[in-house]
Amino acid sequence: MAEEELVIREDPAEEQLDAELERLKAEKKEKRKRRLLEEAAKAAKRGVCYLSRIPPRMDPLKLRQILSQYGELERIYLTPEDPAAHIHRKKAGGFRGQGFTEGWVEFTNKNVAKRVASMLNGEQIGGRKKSSFYYDLWNIKYLSKFKWDHLTEEIAYKNATREQKLALELSTAKKERDFYLAKVDQSRALSSIDERLKKKRKTQEVNGSTADIPGDHQAAKVMRMFRQTKPVRDGGEKQKQGLSKDLLAGVFGGSP
Questions:
Q1: Residue 162: which of 54, 83, 50 has the closest Cα?
Q2: Main-chain dihedrals φ then ψ at residue 136, nearest 5 degrees
Q3: Phi, psi of 85 (to 5 degrees)
Q4: CB-side exposure of 184: number of CA atoms within 13 Å?
Q5: β-bridge pairing 73-80 and 140-143
Q6: Nearest-angstrom CA–CA distance, 241 and 235
Q7: Which residues have CB under 8 Å from 64's CB, separation 6+?
Q8: pLDDT tens-digit profile of 31-64?
Q9: CA distances from 224 to 138, 194, 215, 228 (A)
Q10: Hey, how many other C-beta atoms are within 10 angstroms of the C-beta on 62?
């Protein structure tokens, strides 16, 4: 009986489906690449301004409302103040909200950012007279060749440095704690030995025994004595003032 050869034929519909999937993947990859290039081109046109001081009660939302009238904004980042300073201000009865120390503002067009920084720096913020930062002045500067990626890298570096420093401080505190606890345990052990020796000594005194107690030398405190020169006011030898006659005779060649 002859063996029949099985011939597997691919379905044309499956081939067409695979080709369509490959085409969609290629289009999606091309769109992603084109979008990245567009974002890179837009990022190259953007400009960043630095604010060295943020007025009290100013937050990112209010800052965006004020600066958006001068040009289109992208991103804003304000550095929060130190928590200790925040707590101190609240205890002193000052502003209880979140404060900020410095900030960065990204404009869509770097030419606009440069113009805004040049126009506003040193000028009064203004607005309504009832505003809490009406009399504050702008402290703003355009950062040439500075991009937002530089800021994110700097923030990430600062966070990593702070975490590393915190871990080091925690490790040091843990070592100091373990050393202290070890010394406490050692002190308790020595105190326990002293108590047992005292009890044995009292028992021997009651029984009239004069035998040495093993380990009794551990309870005795070591007292070290050092020879010291007595001070002059306590009767020590007083040094003679002036030069000796022998020394003068040796210098001038005379007899003493």
A1: 83
A2: -75, 155
A3: -65, -35
A4: 6
A5: unpaired
A6: 17
A7: 73, 76
A8: 887 777 777 777 788 999 999 999 888 899 999 9
A9: 71, 21, 20, 13
A10: 15
Angle at 52 between CA 50 and CA 58, to 5 degrees: 95
Confidence check: pLDDT of 246 > 60: yes
**Which residue in the block uniquely carries the two structure tokens 């920084």?**
117
Per the listing, tokens 């007025």 go with: 55
Q: Identify the pLDDT of residue 209.
A: 59
Residue pair 97/57 in contact (Cβ under 8 Å)? The answer is yes
